[in-house]
Structure formats: C-alpha cells, structure tokens
Amino acid sequence: MERRACRGQNGSGHSKSPLFSHFSQPKHPVGPCFARPLAQLVLPAFATQTMNTIINPAILERLPELTAQFAAGEPKHVVLDGFLLDEVANKLHEHFPSVDSLKVKRKSLNENKVEDYHFERWDPVFTEVRNAIRSSEFTQWMSSLTGIENLQCPDDALGSGLHQGGQGSFVDVHIDVNFDPKLKLWRRINLLIYLNRHWDEAWGGHLELWDAKMTKVLSRVAPLHNRAILFLTDETSPHGYKAINVPEGESRKSFYAYYFSEVSDGFKYSDSRFIARPDDGLVRRTATAMKEWAKIRAKRVLNALGVTSLDFQDKNR
After folding, report:
1. Is 314 a member of any domain?
2. Contacts of 86 (CB under 8 A, 6+ apart)
3. Which one of 91, 113, 117, 276 is CB 3.0 to 4.6 Å from 280, fit for a cystine?
C-alpha cells in the first residue's frame, strides 16, 4: 500500500529522539498530517525492575519458547498462565468494578456484556497494570514474540480497558475491526487477561478460537484467574464465547489490551462483524447476516458524512 507523506513534514513526521531510537521511521504515513506520531503513543521506557513488579518475570524469561508456541498456534496464539504476579492479579480481582458501573453496554442479538476504559475511576492498580503493558519495554517483548515490529498500545478506548459479563453473558463468534480510524493505525494483536479467582469451568465462558472457514473450533481457553491469551487480530482468528451460567455474585472478568503498528504493505481493511456458528438455526443465521450487512453499510454512509464516533453503546458520551 503506497502512501504519500503529508507536505510540510520531514521524512518521518517527527524528530527522532534518543528515547525512541529503537523505533524505525514510518515508511507508510497515512491519514491527516495532525495524526499523532506512533512514538508518542508509547510510555517512556519502563525500568526492568518496575515492570517486574507487575508482570511475572518467569513469563518474560520464556520468550523463545512462547515465540515458538505463538508461531505454531492455529490460529496464531499463545496462552500465558500466571501472567501477572499473584498479588497483582488478586488485587485486580478484589477491586474489579461492578457490572452495573461499567458504562459501555453491549447487548444485542449477538452479544451481552459490558466494558469500560476510564481507568481514573478505578483502584490505582488498574493504571499500574495498564502502564506496564503499554511500556516500551513490554511492547518490544511483544514484538519479539509475535514477529510484528514496533507494536504499540494506544491510550484510548481502543488501547485497553475492562470487559465483564454477568449471568447469561455471551459474545458470538466475530472478527475484530483491524484499524483505528482516529490514529490511523493497524490493529494486530489482542491481549486478554482473565481475572476470575474462583472460576469453575462448568460455568462455561471458554474463549473459542475458530478456523477462518468457521468449520471447527481450533482451541478452547477457559477464563481462569491470572491466565492471559494473546492472539493475532485478523480474519483468520474468529473468536467468541457461549453464554455463561454463573452463581449469583459471580461474573466473567477480563482486562484487555490491543496492540497496533503503522499501516504498511499487506494491510487490508476488515470491519468488525459477527459470524454465525455452523450449528446456529436458520433464523439466527439469517438475522445475524442481515444485521451485520446493514451495520457495515450504515457505518460506511456515516463515515462518508464525516461521522467518526460510531459507538452508540458507549454511555460515557
């Protein structure tokens, strides 16, 4: 994909400082000239000692093994048990906000969950974890593991936040959108950290990773406490979870982070969309297909009219 740089900028669009010397200059600038340079999205380099007070050092030390597991995954993914230090994961669980307090309400034919991204409303431990997984040191580790250069985690709703679902919560199988329209960046990797300290696998809620043709489930991952999964965000990784059946007072909790890179060769825009399972009935399959067709076309019309804030389920706005 060939792009011309905006006039009035130097070759990179920003001066290269020693702090960000490990970033390559963007070769494919996209979007308006006022879009933030990629290097500005990353936090200043975290000291190893600081990151190791959040993320389990035993996980970080397994980079060669985890790199091989990710590459061999179908679809490309790796499961990381004990991802955070135990005391950090337990504190996140203890202070996880209530279902009712999260302001982004996802409830439709194809999903039933809530989410939010306002870290200033929650216990400081959530911001500490967010800072660690957005740090330049950790994103470099992620780039090494996935083979995708210069991964970054933005500081907006498309960067990180919380998911939660109470009794009956589900998210049908879907493909994620692979582009941040505000920052003009390519979404590449999803990281989910489950925070369900007393989870019983009989309650369901397993993340299902399907093959691209939606013929079979390739992997089922239980949302066990302090288990993380990272996987490629593209059309080869349809994913979702079936309705959970939990006791009163329990919910399916997770911390999400999405990682992006500059748009470059190989990028092809893909909108988010739900996909029917093979065992869905004809009525549900037809309703899902019609709803997604209408949604995607409506978004195109609104984008053409200059409407860029399209999340009408976000009650923060």
Report:
1. no
2. 226
3. 276
